[in-house]
Design a protein that fits this description.
Elements (H helix, E strand, L loop, with lengths): L6 H5 L1 H11 L9 H14 L9 H10 L6 H10 L3 H12 L1
């Protein structure tokens, strides 16, 4: 059995999630206190209502802040098309980074 993933597999969140659970090694990045504070400040700026999570409008503003030309309906399509939280996080990470 090969460990390679094709583009088709990456597009299918369910297949990707199964493959990750079977083969991936979780590596927790080392983040120092200064980086944590910077990320927290960035999150706090995006979390306008101070709810502790990002709602759709706040997430949309974060996407726009990166300079991506994405409509609200395109972002909603990505969110609704994500089969799992892992798949959604992977897609958002690619978009925002």
């Amino acid at each position: 059995m090969t460990l390679a993933l094709t583009a088709h597999h990456l597009a299918d969140g369910h297949v990707f999630e199964q493959w990750m659970r079977k083969h991936a090694k979780i590596v927790k990045p080392k983040v120092n206190a200064q980086e944590k504070a910077r990320y927290r400040n960035m999150f706090d700026l995006l979390d306008e209502d101070k709810s502790g999570s990002l709602d759709f409008d706040e997430l949309y503003e974060a996407v726009r802040y990166t300079g991506l030309k994405m409509t609200r309906s395109e972002l909603l399509f990505i969110i609704k098309g994500s089969e799992s939280r892992l798949h959604l996080l992977r897609v958002l990470f690619v978009l925002l980074c």
